[in-house]
Design goal:
Elements: H1 3-7, H2 16-36, H3 53-66, H4 72-95, H5 103-110, H6 120-126, H7 140-152, H8 156-167, H9 184-192
Helix pairs in contact: 2-4, 4-7, 4-8, 7-8
Length: about 200
């Protein structure tokens, strides 16, 4: 069961740390399987999806005007994407060797091949996205702390404000927001004018 599915049960069952490991483990497998997929073309980057800016902008406009989040379905989709991207970002950070986690040992235990550290196709071509390198050794703790707050939030209005904080986490490598929302920081600057 993933983090999002547990969100509804969070008040009764606060074992999200297990879900964190489960989601990140699933992302390790997805990333490595995607890399080793025989249909993948050399130089092709890993897949990565972001929140459509227009959807979040509409939700923010409604909230700024009425103080209420009306598009619950849209918020649920945004929450799912945020949580998936946090898990995927953690997995790709670990796979790139930018954490204390020894992914090589884990891969062996799981029966997966982890690319050789000298494999430039994996480390410099594949572990990349059209939105930037999916690596954040600095931002991960803050992102997970905010994900926990997202679970504890009891209203969609609170969730929207926490999502805003998640999208505004910064790190030294570039535009971290671009890994979550279409247009990255420039989109957030447009949203800032709505508040």
């Amino acid at each position: 069961m993933n983090w999002y599915k547990k969100a509804q049960q969070f008040q009764q069952n606060k074992d999200t740390i297990e879900d964190y490991y489960e989601d990140v483990n699933e992302e390790y497998e997805r990333i490595l399987n995607e890399y080793y997929d025989k249909k993948r073309k050399k130089g092709q980057m890993m897949s990565w999806d972001v929140i459509p800016f227009a959807r979040l902008k509409k939700i923010w406009e409604d909230y700024a005007r009425d103080g209420v989040v009306r598009d619950i379905k849209g918020m649920d989709e945004i929450i799912r994407r945020i949580l998936k991207n946090i898990s995927r970002l953690q997995a790709s950070t670990d796979l790139a060797g930018h954490s204390e986690f020894d992914i090589t040992e884990w891969a062996k235990e799981m029966g997966l091949r982890h690319p050789n550290p000298r494999n430039t196709d994996f480390y410099f071509d594949f572990l990349n996205t059209q939105y930037g390198a999916p690596i954040s050794d600095y931002g991960m703790k803050k992102l997970w702390d905010l994900a926990n707050q997202l679970f504890q939030a009891t209203s969609y209005e609170q969730k929207l404000l926490i999502i805003d904080q998640i999208l505004n986490v910064v790190h030294q490598r570039g535009d971290l927001a671009a890994l979550f929302i279409e247009g990255g920081t420039s989109s957030l600057n447009q949203l800032a004018g709505l508040q």
